[in-house]
Every structure is written in C-alpha cells, then in structure tokens.
Specification:
Elements lengths: L3 E7 L5 H13 L3 E4 L8 E3 L2 E4 L2 E2 L5 E5 L6 H11 L4 E2 L2 H7 L2 H10 L7 E5 L3 H10 L3 E5 L10 E4 L1 H12 L5 E6 L6 E8 L2 E9 L14 E4 L4 H14 L3 E9 L4 E8 L7 H6 L4 H23 L1
Parallel strand pairs: 1-2, 1-6, 6-7
Antiparallel strand pairs: 3-4, 4-5, 8-11, 9-10, 9-11, 12-13, 12-15, 13-14, 15-16
Helix pairs in contact: 1-9
C-alpha cells in the first residue's frame, strides 16, 4: 500500500513552526508523509475537488487544521466540505459546535455539566435583557457566540449601564445576544488540555490587576497549576460531549455557588511557547505524541475501511 498522505495547517508563531517540524518527523517514522502549509485561504474548488497549493484535498488520508488566529468564513466553508470526504482533526461537526458558545453551554447543561447561567435573547428583547440583569444581581457579561481570546466580551453592571448601551446595540447587525451571569471568582482559571480522551496538561491563567479577563490576549498571565481530580473529570467529560479529539477546556470556581463551571471549550488549544516552557509548562512532548498517535490510528482505520 502506498504511503499515507496527511495535510497540515499549523500556526507558526510562538514555537508553532518547531512543533510542526517535530510532528512531520514523528509521522515520517510511521510511514506517513506530511504536506504542510495547506492554508485554505489559498484554496479553490472546481468540478468535485478542492485544490490547495497543488494538492487535491480529497486525495489526502487526513487533514489537521490547527490555526485559530487566521480562520475566515471562506476557509471554514471549505473545511466543512473537505470533512465530508476525508477525516479531519478536529472533526468539523465538533469544531463548529465548540466555536459557538451558546450551543456548547446548552449541550453541557443538558448533560449536567455546570456553565455560567446564560440567556439567549433576540436583539429587540429589551425585557429579556433587563430581566437577566435583575435576576443576576445587576451584573452580566455579553459575549459574541463566536470568537476567541476574549474579543468582544463586555461586562455590564447595573440597569442604567444597560440603558445606555441599548441604543448602540439596536443599531448593530447582531441578530441575538448571548448573556451570562457574571461569576464571582478569584480571577484565575484552569486550562486543561485533552487529546484523544487523555489528560495532557494543565496550567492556570490570571487576570491583570485591574481586569477580570484571564485570556492572554486580554493581558492575562500564565502560571503552573496542578489540577484536582474534579476539574480533570469535568474537562474530559466536556471534551467527549463536544466530540472533540483535541480540546482545551477552561474552568473557573464559582465562589458564590461553590462549584466549578466550564467557561469554554477550545478546539485549537496552543502548545506551550518556548517562554512558557521556561516557566515550567512541560506538556508539549506528551501532547505531540498523543496527536501523532491519534493521526496514525485515524489514518489506519480510514484506510482499512477503503481496502
């Protein structure tokens, strides 16, 4: 049987290029050839095939898409189409679910995993907005249902602040609002990496002194953090429910309700950067090995079905 061909599109900053080189070498040792740089921004579709950098995507045995910062609607559209023909990691259905904060929270709540209390309401549902802020003690958080890195997240305190915001909101092209109760927590979180159902690593993030967002792109900082059994179990269950082969699950402790809650599930959790490795985040090799094993097994299973 001919060598398997796997397509890769990985981020290159923050040590991503070195991670990709290690992945290519590890897969080569398993007789799997890698075609890198398959950015679907450069792709086009014609007569039953999707072409990217002279590669017919449907001829690949698997496609790994691992770049959160450069996704466009065009790329996602082709990613979905490719997933109908060959295995993708993450699988597109799970990836799309994790990109939608409301759908993710709704699924987790339906399976008894706590998330921040939420409300989805139509953009013209002023009563619903005001009811939410009253029910939640005068504090709520507005979030776009998609996006990453804390972009577009706004904390609204008090009905007066909401009244001031409503005229602006009514002029936007948003169709609905996703709102969450603002949680009383210690301004730190857990990021737990899961690959193929295994715990890979954990670290904490801390919000800057005068803020409440822990996201690194919002000014948060990383620290080494040991997870307890409860947060690991929650992270594994959340990743499995979402159907993600690779996941980064964010959790915080709600001091008011005395429980851990899942804030978000990320489908493209970054490897530790060289600077973060110096701080003690030492899970990169374990994560790389787990992804290589996952790719190898998925390719083997896919080829055995065809044979």
């Amino acid at each position: 049987m001919a060598l398997a061909n796997v397509g890769l599109w990985l981020y290159e900053n923050g040590g991503g290029a070195q991670i990709q080189n290690k992945m290519v070498d590890a897969l080569k040792q398993r007789d799997i050839n890698c075609i890198t740089g398959l950015n679907l921004r450069d792709a086009y579709a014609r007569d039953g095939n999707i072409f990217c950098n002279n590669t017919i995507m449907e001829d690949l045995d698997l496609f790994l898409s691992y770049n959160a910062g450069q996704q466009s609607q065009y790329q996602l559209y082709l990613y979905e189409a490719i997933s109908q023909s060959i295995p993708t990691i993450n699988n597109y259905a799970a990836f799309a679910l994790s990109e939608d904060k409301f759908k993710t929270s709704h699924l987790l709540n339906n399976h008894s995993i706590a998330t921040p209390e939420y409300r989805l309401c139509h953009k013209n549902d002023t009563h619903g907005l005001k009811t939410a802020i009253k029910d939640w003690g005068g504090k709520l958080v507005y979030k776009p249902t998609d996006g990453w890195g804390g972009a577009g997240i706004v904390k609204i305190e008090g009905e007066q602040a909401l009244d001031m915001l409503l005229p602006f909101l009514s002029r936007t092209d948003l169709r609905y609002f996703y709102l969450e109760r603002f949680i009383d927590y210690d301004n730190t979180d857990y990021r737990i990496d899961i690959v193929d159902g295994q715990l890979i690593g954990c670290y904490g993030r801390k919000a800057p002194k005068d803020d409440w967002k822990t996201n690194i792109t919002s000014g948060g900082s990383i620290f080494v953090r040991e997870p307890n059994d409860e947060v690991v179990a929650l992270a594994k269950k959340a990743a499995a429910l979402a159907g993600l082969e690779i996941a980064g699950v964010d959790l915080i402790y709600d001091r008011e309700q005395e429980r851990y809650v899942v804030l978000e599930i990320n489908s493209i959790p970054a490897f530790a950067t060289p600077e973060q490795e110096k701080l003690g985040l030492n899970f990169n090799n374990k994560k790389l090995d787990a992804i290589v094993n996952l790719i190898d097994r998925t390719v083997s299973q896919s080829r055995s079905k065809v044979a």
